[in-house]
Specification:
The structure is a homodimer of 149-residue chains.
Chain A lengths: L4 H12 L9 H8 L3 H13 L3 E4 L5 E4 L8 H9 L23 H17 L2 H18 L7
Antiparallel strand pairs in A: 1-2
The first copy, chain A, binds a DNA duplex (30 and 30 nucleotides) through α3.
DNA sequence: GGCTATTCGGACTTTTAAATCCTTAATAGT
DNA sequence: ACTATTAAGGATTTAAAAGTCCGAATAGCC
C-alpha cells in the first residue's frame, strides 16, 4: 500500500459512518469492519483533532462526521494521518534526484504523484461509501436467500 | 518513498560499484555513500543470495556485480528487496477494491503502477551510475578548485 | 603448514510503528 | 445524586524494520 495501515483504517472507518449525523460507536465500527478496536479508537481520536470527526462521550455518544461526506476529501484525510509531505522525495530514495538530476523513474513518478494527488483531492468520503454499498449490494444479489445452502 | 530505505540503499550501492569486475569492500561503499556500514553489509548479503552480487571473503575480497550493470534492472533489485508483490493491493488498503469494484483512486493507481513497473524493468543499474556521474561532474564544474575559498 | 590480518555471514540489539490496556472524564438516564 | 455508558489520553506490549556486533572463511606472510 502507498500509505500506512492506520490511514487505510481511517478511510474505511469514515466510509462506514452513517450519512445522517447519527453518532456511531467506535466499537461498532471496529466489529463491523473487522479492525482492531482500541487501535481504531485511537485513530478516530486523531480524526477528531483534525476536525474531520466530532465526538461526544457518554451514553448515546460516539463519533460522526463534522461535514457531509462529499465535503471531506480523501486527500484531507491522508494529510491528517500522514502529514503534509507524505509523497515527497525520490521514489528510490536517491538524495541526488531532482528535477535537474532526475533518476530514471523521476518523470514516471512525478506524473504518478500529481495524478494521485489530483484524484485524492477530487475523491471524497462519499465516493468510498458508494464503493462499499455497491460491494455489499452485489454480494446480496449473488445469494438472495440469507440462509446458507 | 515508495519503497523501504533498504531498497534505496541497495540501489545506491549497486550504482556505486565499479563497472569492471573489481571486488569492492562493503566498508568503502558505506563510507563513500555515507550509509550505515553494517546495515549496508547485510543488504549486500541479500543481494548476493538474489544472484545480483557475487562476494568473496578475506583479503582482496568484497562484492561485485554478477553481470554488467546494464543487464541488471531496477525492477529486479526492487523485487529482490521487497518481494514480488510489493505493489499489489489497493492504494488505500480497501479490501473490497478490485477491477470490478474500483475505489476512487483505483484507476489512477493502476496507471501509476504499470507506468512505474515499466520504467523499473527498463531502467538498469547503468542508468543509475550515469545519474551519479553526472551529479558529481556538475558539482566539480561548480567548484573547479578543490580547496574551499 | 600454521599464523595473522582482512572481509563476508549470520545472530543480536535498538528503534519505530502497530496494537492493546487501563485509568480518567464526560454525559444520559434513573 | 448515582450509575451505566462511552470517548480521551496515557502507559504498555508486540511486531517489524533499521542498525550493530561477533564468529567463519580466505589470502598473504613467515
Amino acid at each position: 500500500m502507498l500509505f500506512s495501515t492506520a490511514t487505510g483504517y481511517a478511510l474505511r472507518a469514515l466510509a462506514a459512518l452513517p450519512e445522517d449525523g447519527t453518532y456511531c460507536l467506535a466499537k461498532d465500527l471496529s466489529s463491523r469492519l473487522g479492525l482492531p478496536g482500541p487501535y481504531l479508537a485511537k485513530i478516530l481520536q486523531g480524526l477528531v483533532q483534525a476536525d474531520i470527526l466530532a465526538s461526544v462521550r457518554g451514553p448515546k455518544g460516539g463519533f460522526r462526521l463534522t461535514r457531509p461526506a462529499h465535503r471531506i476529501t480523501v486527500g484531507e484525510v491522508v494529510t491528517a494521518m500522514e502529514g503534509p509531505d507524505a509523497m515527497d522525495g525520490c521514489v528510490m530514495g536517491f538524495p541526488a534526484c531532482s528535477g535537474e538530476h532526475p533518476c530514471p523513474l523521476h518523470d514516471a513518478w512525478s506524473a504518478v504523484k500529481s495524478q494521485v494527488s489530483t484524484s485524492m483531492t477530487e475523491a471524497t468520503i462519499r465516493d468510498l461509501q458508494l464503493l462499499d454499498i455497491r460491494h455489499k449490494k452485489e454480494a446480496k444479489d449473488r445469494a438472495p436467500n440469507s440462509a446458507q445452502a
